[in-house]
Write a structure and sequence with these properties.
This is PTS-dependent dihydroxyacetone kinase, dihydroxyacetone-binding subunit DhaK. One of its GO terms (biological process) is glycerol catabolic process. Keywords: Kinase, Transferase. The protein has 288 residues and is of the alpha/beta class. It has 2 domains: 6-142, Rossmann fold (3-Layer(aba) Sandwich); 145-273, Dihydroxyacetone kinase, domain 2 (Hypothetical Protein Tm841, Chain: A,domain 3), CATH 3.30.1180.20. It is built from 8 helices and 10 strands. The chain has helices at 42-56, 69-84, 113-125, 130-141, 190-204, 224-240, 271-278, 284-287, and strands spanning 6-13, 30-36, 60-66, 88-94, 145-152, 169-172, 183-186, 212-218, 245-251, 260-268. Strand 8 (212-218), helix 6 (224-240) and strand 9 (245-251) form a beta-alpha-beta unit. The longest helix is centred in the last third of the chain and has 17 residues, at 224-240. The model has no long low-confidence stretch (mean pLDDT 96).
Length: 288
């Protein structure tokens, strides 16, 4: 079905494979990437908007933006530039980080971004309208929560960690741009920290009867044992709460350079959301 709009995203570099690894039929139409941990400029975003709408033969853009000050500001400026060329831009913010829900600018957008890209991308490629994508985004935002933990901070471009995490400690509630977490925890075994993070993300999950989509995301150079511990802990916690898990996705989707850490994302998914999640895509970084 011909597209009714262009579905795009973007942000700073250092998060690969986000977003470029998800530009393909069934997900994003296009993306724009800035320097490491830095938003792309408004003119670069506006240029992408003009190019992709011309290529698709549409004049409406739905832009998925992680809720960081630079990204939001530059996408808003780009939307104004695009409007001067006769284009309409609807911006959808990703605010899934439950560690920062109480801050003034709202929760950050972290690993849950890739679930928005998959679900909204499927809808966009099926020819759904911007109003329909906005409605889907509202459904996702009402139920999605993510939480990240780091055992080693990401390195800067000289290979030096951007902050120090002493041995035997973990940074809780980390972002994906090298931000410190909201808390620090001492541990004797890393599994203790991961179980704490799983408890935290389940405690922030909105009530709901629909089954869960679970995403366990490697933030760069996670220890495989930590990924396994997270999966086991999520499954145990869901069983204890009598929650069913419909889909589980594990891998490296949204990174923070070479961070030794992971994030856990949960969301309720009704049958309509699940059908879009299951829709085929050629995006290489989703299928791996």
């Amino acid at each position: 079905m011909p597209p009714a709009l262009a579905f795009i995203s973007g942000g700073g570099g250092g998060h690969e494979p986000l977003d470029s690894g998800f530009v393909a039929p069934g997900m994003l139409h296009a993306c724009v990437t800035g320097p490491r941990f830095t938003s792309p400029s408004a003119p670069d975003i506006a240029q992408l908007m003009e190019e992709v709408t011309a290529e698709l033969g549409v004049n409406t853009i739905v832009a998925l933006v992680k809720n960081y000050t630079g990204d939001v500001m530059n996408f808003e400026l780009a939307a104004e530039l695009a409007a001067a060329s006769g284009l309409e831009c609807i911006m959808i913010r990703v605010c899934d980080d439950c560690a920062t829900q109480e801050v003034s600018q709202g929760a950050r957008g972290i690993a849950g971004t890739v679930l928005y890209e998959k679900i909204l991308g499927a809808a966009a490629w099926l020819g759904q309208t911007s109003e329909e994508l906005a409605s889907l985004a509202n459904q996702i935002s009402e139920s999605i929560v993510s939480y990240g933990v780091a055992f080693r901070a990401p390195s800067d471009e000289q290979g030096i960690p951007v902050y120090d995490i002493p041995a035997g400690q973990a940074e809780l509630g980390v972002g994906i741009h090298g931000e410190r977490g909201v808390d620090r925890r001492t541990f004797s075994q890393r599994r203790e920290v991961i179980e704490h993070c799983v408890d935290e993300v389940f405690s922030q999950l909105a009530p709901g009867d629909d089954p869960l989509i679970v995403l366990v995301n490697d933030l760069g150079q996670a220890n495989p044992n930590d990924i396994e511990s997270a999966l086991l802990s999520v499954n145990e916690r869901a069983e204890n709460l009598s929650m069913s898990i419909a889909r589980t996705k594990v891998g490296r989707f949204v990174t923070s350079a070479d961070m030794d850490g992971l994030s856990i994302t949960l969301m309720h998914a009704n049958p309509g959301i699940l059908s879009l999640y299951d829709a085929p895509t050629l995006a290489p970084s989703w299928s791996e």
